[in-house]
Amino acid sequence: MAQFGFENDIHSILKLDMPITNAPMARWQRKVSSSNTLALNGLSPGKSANVSQSSSKTPSKTPGKNKKPTPSRIGGDRFIPVRNSKQMDVASFLLSKENEPMDMNNTENQKAWSICLNGYNIEDAKILHLGGKPLNAPEGYQNNLKVLYSQATTPASVKKTRYISSTPDRILDAPELRNDFYLNLLDWSSQNVLAVALLNSVYLWDATQGDIVLLMKMEREEDYICSLAWTKEGSYLAVGTSDCKVQLLHLTQRHIATLCICLAQHGISLPSGSRSGQIHHHDVRVADHHICTLTGHSQEVCGLRWSPDGRYLASGGNDNLVHVWPRVQEGGAGSQSVHCWNEHQGAVKALAWCSWQPNILASGGGTSDRRIRIWNVNSGSCISSLDTQSQISSMVFAPNYKELVSGHGYAHNNVVIWKYPSLTKVVELNGHEDRVLNLTLSPDCSTVATVAGDETIRLWKSFEVDPVKKKAKERLVKSTNSVIHQSIR
């Protein structure tokens, strides 16, 4: 019996549902006891009274206010600052009245009213102010911060973009124009007269007045004009014909001399190139005009160009060669070329000297080559080369913007303006329906004239100078000339 009694005592101790006599009071027991205490004190759910339970406890709600309870311990919630409701109202008023015009005469009155009504200036209540100039720093203020980046207007952003029209300024008819790559049928004189060869006739167009004059016509119908070029002063026109003659004509249609087909002039020496590849120099002042013969090309001479300073004569031929010849002295015999370049893979007709760099020569190849090459005559090296993907028939340098203009045949039949010396394409001028044969520049270098196999002459006004810059340049030239004249005197 004693054994069974011991087991019952152990089971009674291990039972978890037995009340614990020494344990603290449970939470639900404390809640029930507190509610009983409030009921005994006369408090009911339908009544209110200003009774504080103890001085050490903070009431959970403020009487008469429906606000969130304030946390009883520090750091329990984020801090929300108290904002002045008056300033928010004023800011709302300013935003609503921002677009209304302001009377500047009442500025001081408004400031006084604002101070009296609000206790502060209304301008100081702005949350965000956009516009107006920034305030100056106070006197003696120093900023030790290092400037990492600053933005300023650059010359490229200030400079106006140049407009180049894609359509010609004027179109002239050129009926019966001979469509031959090897001919030079167009030239513009320093007196603003444009000469063009139409089959066996030479016509002059006065760009100033717009008049058209027939200068000459060959007697035989089967003959035709091969080349023409103005003298430097623009008073005489040299004309090469298919019967192996060169005529020097004055504007009054008087024949000055009968000389021998592709030609160019500088000073008293008149060179002419022939189909045999020889270049003949002539002195038009004397009866025995032939000075010397230059031999270097094995096939037809396609192009001749004097350098701006008259030191060199460049020639291009159907043998794909480019020769640079020294100037022939009076009474001198034929000399050897200074340079002979054979890099082109096609006939070289297009030649152009740079007017602001007399030692720079540009040459262009035909259909088999299609490349523009820039040469330095002093060093004899090729500075740059560019594949234009089209036959090059003529070139000229435009000094107003330091650009190079090229006329093309197959396959593009257009005019291209290149930036020099980078040879980046500026613009393409399209409009001709057949290959461009020749191009020439106006005396003021603002317009380029092109003639093509579609029997039209198109004037492209692509190099007009800003009038302000033009006047400044003219003043600079006049001042330079006056200084030179004074030094000579």
UniProtKB/TrEMBL annotation:
GO terms for molecular function: anaphase-promoting complex binding; ubiquitin ligase activator activity. GO terms for cellular component: anaphase-promoting complex. Residues 54-63 have a biased composition (Low complexity). Residues 172-460 form the CDC20/Fizzy WD40 domain. InterPro entries: Cdc20/Fizzy, WD40/YVTN_repeat-like_dom_sf, WD40_CDC20-Fz, WD40_repeat_dom_sf, WD40_rpt. PROSITE patterns: WD_REPEATS_2, WD_REPEATS_REGION. It holds the Pfam family WD40_CDC20-Fz. GO terms for biological process: anaphase-promoting complex-dependent catabolic process; positive regulation of anaphase-promoting complex-dependent catabolic process. Residues 38-79 are annotated as: Disordered. This is CDC20/Fizzy WD40 domain-containing protein. Keywords: Repeat, WD repeat. It comes from the Eukaryota. SMART domains: WD40 (SM00320). Belongs to the WD repeat CDC20/Fizzy family. WD repeats lie at residues 294-325, 366-385, 429-461.
